[in-house]
What does this fold into?
Amino acid sequence: MGTLGWGPGKRLLYSTLRYLITNRNAGIALYTVFGFMAGYSGYLIWRVFLGVDSYEFPARNYGDLGFRTWGVTARYVTNICQALGLLLLLGQVTIQFGENISQISRFKLCYVVCPVLFVCAGFFLTQIRTLKAYGWVANLAVWLNLLVIFITMGVIANSPPNYAISVLGSAGGAVDPDSITPDDNGVYPPIMHYNSLPPNGLVGSINGLLSGVLAYAGAQLFVEFLAEMKRPRDFIKAMWGAQFFIYTVYLVYGCFVYHFQGQYSFNPSYMGVSIYGWQAAGDMISLVAALIAAGLYGNIGIKVFYNNILIDIFSAPPLTTTRGKIIYASIVPIWWSIAFIIAAAIPDYFGFVSIIAASMLLNLTYTFPPFFALGFDIQRHAVRGDLGEGFDPVTGKVMRSETRVQRLIRGYFSGGPFQVGINIWHTIYFLASLSMCGLGMYAAIMGKYYYLLCLTMLTSGVGMITAFKIPELNSFSCRSPLNLNG
It folds into this structure.
């Protein structure tokens, strides 16, 4: 909200459409659009899954949808993106909540030890192999997150922002560092808001938009959920309910925080609380919820790696066997350690988060689903029995009379005017998502150097923050990046 501005106000639907038409997209409008399209992507994943899954040839992971609709290459690309995205996301969570532990200890604990403690706890939680067993744990995480939200809202409404920490990740630091810079007397500028996109803040606004992508990044896990459901057809109701829940809670919370803290709105928001006791409470509660989420990322990431690399290439035993369970248990600490090393070695934490969202999470949520749905519909409508095509049960061969390109063209323009329109829409959706990926990568990379330039202009008390952006200093250091007096 702080990097995009308010956007539409009370009459949400009318204002959203008006802002989209007049090219004045802002926070509420874009978050609404991204939420709806994330739900639509989930619907496409569900529809394709029901179309390709069977008892004899079950669809077990996201890559299986790519394989059934576009072939082996699409499967490998999808599996690599999903595994890498989950690994990087696990590393990001590890570093972020290592900072929680560091802040709780008031920076008395060597910083590099803090994320290691989080990793060690994750070793044990990720030993849970089935997603069904995660049900009650995941439910607990939801309520813990809501508790943090309610606590933060109450404290923020009755206390000033945490001005000092705003240089580390606030909205003002992303779009206009002068708006959070104190004067010679140490007085910070008053709280301010933007009604539309902040002027000259395109890079910061795009990075803020990527936070919306991160909020809806669960689509990459949907196939794994569907594969373990007794009634996959019921998934669509739970998915739309969850998307609406996420949209409502985050939007109300985001608007609330932005109203009271303006350009000082910090990410994560509970660290932007100025009262240490409540700050520590948010740290501790969110730490438990984050550990549950990280365990889920690790669980599915390891399964993708195990099923598509170890089983397919190295003929490893299935996870249901005793040997498979032992191998899985031995991979867990290695997987977490790799995630920690990758994330801890990168000093530009916020740029790291933006790059994950732009390169991996955006594609997994918004690019792949329309691409898979397009391939599924093309294959369904490309079959022509009257041309002698089909499956011969005697020989076990598929009979085709045309080249692959001819079949793709025929399938694209078959099925009637409505189906052709759907194919065109999915093509546009796919290309638009790819464009957003490129734009997000540009903003994430350019934003790093822009942010460095802004930091050099800030006043006293932030020397360590500037140093943290230098490659020689990273998360393996004993000094916490949140310790402004370090």
